[in-house]
Design brief:
Chain A: Belongs to the ORC4 family. Chain A: Residues 216-400 form the Origin recognition complex subunit 4 C-terminal domain. The complex is a heterodimer of chains A (419) and B (534). Chain A has 419 residues and is an alpha/beta fold. In chain A, 56% of the residues lie in helices and 9% in strands. Chain A has helices at 6-18, 21-30, 35-49, 65-79, 97-112, 122-138, 150-153, 159-167, 192-197, 211-221, 231-246, 248-257, 264-276, 287-297, 301-307, 311-325, 333-346, 355-368, 394-403, 409-416, and strands at residues 53-58, 84-90, 142-148, 175-181, 201-204, 371-373, 388-390. Chain B has a five-stranded parallel beta sheet, sandwiched between helices. A three-stranded antiparallel beta sheet of chain B has the order 6-8-7. The chains are: A alpha/beta (419), B alpha/beta (534).
Chain lengths: 419, 534
């Protein structure tokens, strides 16, 4: 077996780290005032002090709420074995009251190796829930209820939430209810009785890129001590990486990345892409890798489609745009042809194709998805008479024309002239 | 709902000022929230500066043994913390107690000062004074870091611990007890409806009344009634309530002699879960008590004040409307009373009185919900713990502070309660908008501008046009309609915008789900948005 290329090993290590959410979010566990430590304090204090608690985790999708919760639960299970039991419900699956109670009973039975009966009625399941809470309270075992998509549980009469939170008001039970939701006003959706019983603790997961992201990238990308990596390779890789991450160009790339989406999962995808672009022969990451990863994350599918168009198709698109500007009522292939024929009248050009060639080009545009029929009504009619609409905006068309390699000047003039 | 704009603004001012200097913020908070108690600030604020003056004032006519021992006690303060049988507290702590004798809403400062001084001068022999000093014997400092003490405090303030005596609801409990006892004595049936906002102590009072009723029946030598408690949310379907009641009746008829059928007390909690379209279940339930030989007392508990009027009109025509007892939302004084009752059992003071009062005022103004008040108190204790942990990490400051300072610094103070209140009442919308990515902020900005002209909703296509205009004015390249639509969907997921359904993407209706003023407030940190939204 030959010596493995250390660059390959490094790439493998980094990629497996990025794909492991527990590793990524363990970065946040080291910060003192992070949501991880607050959540851990809440749950561990209810375990040790035997009191009930409820908390809501809020934040946009992909910002790590479930991952941090998993991390906290894993750490607590290691610290207090046999004192915590977890029941997980999801609002997409279990928002119906009966369904939710059945699922709670099933999970509890599975954990404690009891016999679960599918035939149990709603009444029996709710009695089972109350008795389980009582027994666990006596045994000093805390049940953690994780309710994902919490806002979906608030539809209807909210019976499940009411019964869970009401049971937590008694001394005999020991439970923590953790709600995870992406709606900021999830607690406003609660009925007033349920809201009164909920403890109003909210942990906001706000992403603040910039300084945070640099440290997160360092945490993920810096190579650890590994037997497969020679020491000097590791040291030089890490040094070059630190230089890149501290540089201005990298900051510019990250800023551009965060314009539209600044959640952690988006940034992780970017890092993965950049590492995949790593050049194995050079043996280290360069700023070029990050820059080339950016367009593959921020794809513009319409621009890519425009790049492949022929000049005739571009003419057709511009004619459609002009028709739209002129606010012509009916836009179908015939009216586009009329507009197209009128161009040689105002401008002297020899680009004049026959009708059937244009029709072929038009059908290609339909297939590419740049143009589509207005509605599905006239399916019996031929393509020439059905009304169509443009699927790209003026700005995108202009950008596409500018980046087109051999765009005739006439097209630019036609775009610019609005009449 | 408290006024959103004044409270967060006031708190943010307090927070800013707290960062600059401690004493300044306390005075500001006092001037804003606790006008009548401004006398406290004079006596209780900075222990370092004011204490010698006040104690000098008080000790001038000295010649009494108690004050001397008090002065002597101070050097032993470091021992007091772990010694539960220790003696009295410092003279500094005297003043809040004293001034509480007077009514909070009075009158000129001078009178209150005079009253304080008078009762303080009237040292040995006066009965109230003796009681106060006895109270002080118990009160001492607590260490938030000690686990048993912390656990005791948390337990005292937890929602699930029912206090041994339920204060502030004596009237209502007596009314219910009178009604029930009358029914039991006359072996008649009757119905009572208890209503009130959530968190006003209805279920708790019902539990106490049940116990009181049994005691009363035993004392009077009357057969105590059978009690059946049902929470209507646990019923799978509405008519189950009748099967539950009938099973209870059957049980009692088989156990007792027929003539001895005792009265049945049915307590139905959360009665509005029984409301159906034709209101038959509720109607029948209340009709149970109007039957000629019925022995059933029905106590219904719900939130709606007019449940009986709106949903059971026939009962009115039959002239057997249930008696209605309203549990009003707690007022500030009641909340303070209840909190102190809970904390009375503890041998140490946890809260500074002003802190308790701030909490009570805010919660009473918002909803009068006792659960919220308890949650705020627990939250404030956590803030104190967090602060003490940070300061112990910082180092040796604690040892250098004078002993008296240590004691007050271990109590929950106003800024802790203020921070806890802001956490409970502040909505996370402003923070979230501030941390949104740039393009989403531009979308929100263009939505605000669009809706400023009076429209309530618009289509995605219109929003796109405004968005492109805003982007053009700052040379930021706008994103295409597809990405705009996905960003709008993300905002809809978060509850900031509301997207309707439509076959075509461009025609989906977009409305703002948060107040435009909140968005303007959140975005004012960025100069571009400030100019744009002017």
């Amino acid at each position: 077996m030959g010596v493995e290329n250390p660059a390959e090993v490094a790439k493998f290590i980094i990629r497996s780290r990025i794909a492991d959410p527990l590793f990524v979010y363990s970065y946040f566990s080291q910060l003192p005032d992070s949501n991880y430590s607050k959540l851990k304090y809440i749950i561990s204090s209810s375990v040790t002090e035997a009191c009930n608690n409820s908390v809501l985790l809020l934040g946009p999708r992909g910002c790590g709420k479930t991952a941090v919760l998993e991390l906290v639960l894993e750490d607590l299970l290691k610290e207090h074995p046999d004192m915590i039991s977890v029941v997980k419900l999801n609002g997409l699956l279990h928002s119906d009251n009966n369904c939710a109670l059945k699922e709670i009973a099933r999970q509890v039975c599975m954990e404690h190796q009891l016999q679960f009966s599918k035939m149990a009625s709603f009444d029996e399941n709710s009695k089972f829930l109350l008795s389980i809470l009582r027994e666990c309270g006596l045994a000093h075992k805390t049940i953690v209820f994780v309710l994902e998509e919490f806002d979906l549980f608030t539809e209807g009469k909210q019976r499940l939430l009411y019964s869970l939170l009401d049971a937590m008001q008694s001394v005999s039970s020991q439970a923590v209810v953790v709600g995870v939701s992406c709606r900021l006003d999830a607690d406003q959706l609660l009925e007033k009785r349920v809201r009164s019983r909920f403890s109003h603790r909210k942990l906001l997961f706000l992403s603040s890129p910039g300084e945070d992201f640099q440290r997160l990238a360092e945490h993920i990308l810096l190579l650890p001590m590994d037997s497969r990596l020679p020491n000097d390779f590791r040291a030089s890789f890490n040094e070059k990486l630190l230089n890149i991450l501290a540089g201005e160009e990298f900051k510019g790339v990250v800023d551009q990345l965060c314009y539209s989406d600044s959640t952690v999962s988006h940034l992780l995808r970017f890092l993965f892409c950049a590492v995949c672009h790593m050049d194995l022969s050079s043996g280290s990451l360069s700023i070029q890798n990050f820059k080339s990863a950016l367009p593959s994350i921020q794809r513009q599918p319409k621009q890519e489609a425009l790049k492949d168009c022929s000049v005739l198709q571009l003419y057709l698109l511009v004619c459609m745009k002009r028709l739209e500007v002129k606010e012509v009522e009916l836009c179908n292939f015939n009216s586009i042809m009329k507009e197209y024929k009128s161009i040689p009248d105002s401008f002297q050009t020899c680009d004049n194709f026959a009708r059937n060639v244009c029709l072929r080009a038009f059908e290609h545009l339909l297939q590419r998805g740049l143009v589509s029929f207005q509605d599905n009504r006239g399916q019996g009619q031929s393509t020439e008479f059905r009304p169509v609409k443009l699927l790209i905006s003026w700005h995108e068309l202009q950008q596409g024309l500018q980046s087109f390699p051999s765009c005739p000047v006439l097209l630019h003039k036609l775009m610019a002239r609005e009449g | 709902m408290p006024s959103r704009h004044s409270f967060p603004a006031a708190l943010s001012i307090c927070k800013l000022q707290y960062n600059s200097s401690f004493s300044l913020s306390i005075e500001q908070l006092h001037s804003q929230f606790l006008q009548p108690f401004s006398i406290y600030t004079a006596s209780v604020s900075n222990p370092g500066t004011d204490m010698p003056a006040f104690s000098a004032r008080r000790h001038s006519p000295s010649s009494d043994p108690t004050s001397e021992t008090r002065v002597a006690v101070t050097p032993r303060k470091s021992r007091l913390r772990s010694d539960p049988d220790a003696a009295i507290a410092s003279p500094l702590r005297k003043s809040p107690r004293l001034c509480k004798e007077g009514s909070p809403n009075s009158s000129p400062k001078i009178e209150v000062i005079r009253k304080c001084l008078k009762s303080s001068l009237n040292l040995s022999g006066s009965p109230e004074k003796k009681q106060l000093s006895e109270d002080f014997v118990e009160r001492q400092t607590w260490d938030p870091r000690e686990e048993t003490q912390l656990r005791a405090v948390n337990e005292a303030l937890h929602l699930s611990t029912a206090p041994p005596n339920v204060v502030c609801r004596e009237n209502e409990k007596n009314q219910i007890l009178d009604f029930c006892s009358k029914c039991v004595k006359e072996e008649k049936a009757g119905s009572l409806y208890v209503c009130g906002c959530p968190g006003t102590g209805k279920t708790l009072s019902m539990e106490k009344v049940k116990v009181m009723l049994v005691d009363w029946a035993n004392k009077e030598g009357v057969q105590p009634p059978d009690v059946l408690s049902i929470n209507c949310t646990t019923l799978a379907n509405m008519s189950e309530i009748f099967s539950k009641v009938s099973s209870e009746i059957v049980f009692s008829t088989f156990t007792w002699h027929e003539d001895d059928v005792s009265v049945i007390l049915v307590v139905a909690d959360e009665l509005d879960y029984l409301i159906t379209k034709d209101r038959s279940v509720l109607h029948d339930l209340f009709m149970l008590t109007t039957m000629p030989f019925s022995r059933c007392i029905l106590l219904g508990v719900a939130n709606a004040i007019d449940l009986a009027d709106m949903f059971i009109p026939k009962l009115q025509s039959l002239n057997c409307k249930p008696m209605v007892i309203t549990f009003c939302a707690y007022s500030k004084d009641q909340i303070i009373n209840i909190l102190q009752e809970r904390l009375k059992a503890l041998p140490y003071t946890v809260f500074q009185p002003q802190a308790l009062e701030l909490c009570a005022r805010k919660v009473a103004a918002a909803s009068g919900d006792m659960r919220k008040a308890l949650a705020v108190c627990r939250s404030a204790i956590e803030m104190l713990i967090g602060e003490s942990m940070l300061s112990s990490v910082d180092g040796t400051e604690d040892q250098q502070k004078p002993a008296a300072n240590n004691m007050t610094s271990n109590q929950v103070r106003i800024h802790h309660v203020a921070a806890a209140l802001s956490k409970v009442y502040k909505s996370p919308v402003v923070d979230t908008i501030i941390s949104l990515p740039q393009h989403q902020q531009i979308i929100l900005c263009s939505a605000v501008k669009l809706f400023r002209e009076g429209k309530k909703g618009t289509t995605l296509g219109e929003l796109n046009k405004y968005y492109v205009d805003v982007c053009k004015s700052t040379m930021i390249p706008p994103v295409g309609i597809l990405e705009l639509s996905s960003m709008c969907r993300v905002l809809d997921d978060q509850g900031i915008l509301k997207l309707g359904q439509s076959r075509e993407d461009k025609l989906r209706r977009v409305t703002l789900n948060v107040d435009g003023a909140d968005i303007v407030f959140a975005l004012q940190g960025v100069r571009f948005f400030r100019n744009c939204l002017k």
